[in-house]
Amino acid sequence: MKKLCSILLATALCMGALAGCASSPGTSNTAPAASGGAAAPTEDDQYEKLNLKISTSSADLDIATLAANRFAELVEEASGGKITAKVYSNCQLSGGDQAKGMELLVSGGSYEMAVFSGSVISNVDVRFLTHWIPFSYNGYEEVNKVLNGTGGEAYAKLLAEKGVVWMAGLHNGLRHITNNKKEIRAPEDLRGMKIRIPNGEVPMETFKAFGSDPVAMNWSEVFTALQQGTIDGQENAYFNFDSNSLSDVQKYITECGWSYDLFAFMANQAAWDEFSEPTQKLLMEKAAEAAQYGREYQESLEVEQKQKFIDAGVTISELTDEQRQAFVDVVTPVRQKFIEKFGSEICSAWGIS
Questions:
Q1: Measured between alpha carbons, how far apart are the two ends of the chain, in Å?
Q2: pLDDT tens sequence across 228-286
Q3: Where in the chain are the domains?
Q4: Check: CATH 1.10.3720.10 for 47-349?
Q5: CB 118: neighbour CB atoms within 10 A?
Q6: What totals of helices (H) and strands (E) does the chain contain, helices first?
Q7: Which residues have CB under 8 Å from 336's CB, separation 6+?
């Protein structure tokens, strides 16, 4: 009996050993560990964790800030939440001072990115007003061609010299003239009118050539000044007409497209150099997407805004080619002055001659 038990025990041990040998790697019922003991990297792992600050030179509901917020959404989604961005409108991070805002972008340390208008960027180099030269574009199709091509490239080169990365450009709008006195169809109709302009040589010289009395004034003061009669009119893009309820204080719009301004997505070069190559690529791609969103939104919205002004009883004067040429003829000396000042090379890049 004792001998029989010993034989049975030995048989059981052999069976167990054989079973263990049968469980070879690759045939186990349990899931095998990944090669190297670590999970395969995902696309999100390319990006470092970042919390970006973005300054804009416009109000919360203006194009630049809307596009910046769109950029933040796109980047966070594409990075799987690794890269986030907080947008600060109206140059909050520079105390509302736009010139200082551009200085802080150049010097670095306060924020990594900004979306500023051409007039703000010009605080570091007046050549960033090249696209402001009067009557250079007949519509957004012409603007897009140079903004996407040689014009944008020329500005990117200038910014690089200042330690700033040009990422993408979008519209601040083709600019028109409003007033509350009369319909304007010729330069002489502007004679003696007090017209608010942004600070800068190009608008100042242009409206003097029209025979008006240009008044440089902060945009935040314009509605009250129009309401109180301190000024007779102003110039800007449709988007700003609407977002600031100018139909309440202006009776006439002259759709002349006397000038064009842009916004640019930019980054501080030193901060940019700290980002990995995949992160740089992602930020560039999403800035381009957000800029395109801003352009399309602006262009489509202007159609609605124009109708909104018509419905509010505002008279909109669309100039004939002959009428527009009369304005062009008056400012030809102004155009030549700034072509000489900014240089033929950059003007040519922006399609201006």
A1: 115
A2: 999 999 999 998 888 778 889 999 999 999 999 999 999 999 999 999 999 999 999 99
A3: 47-349
A4: no
A5: 20
A6: 14, 9
A7: none
SS3 337: helix
pTM, full prediction = 0.83
What's the rounded Cα separation, in Å, for the pair 136 and 258?
8
Residue 170 CA to residue 67 CA, distance in Å, equals 9
Q: How far is CA 231 from CA 12, 92, 134, 199, 240, in A?
A: 105, 28, 22, 15, 17
Which residue bears the tokens 């909050």? 92
Q: How far is CA 260 from the centre of its chain?
A: 14
Identity of residue 77: E
Check residue 102 and give left, alpha or beta (phi > 0: left; psi -120 to 50: alpha).
Answer: alpha
Q: H-type helices in the chain, by residue range?
A: 2-22, 63-78, 98-107, 118-121, 140-147, 150-161, 201-209, 222-228, 238-243, 269-274, 277-311, 321-330, 332-342, 344-349
Q: Computed over its alpha carbons, how large is the radius of gyration of the chain?
A: 31
Contacts of 1 (CB under 8 A, 6+ apart): none
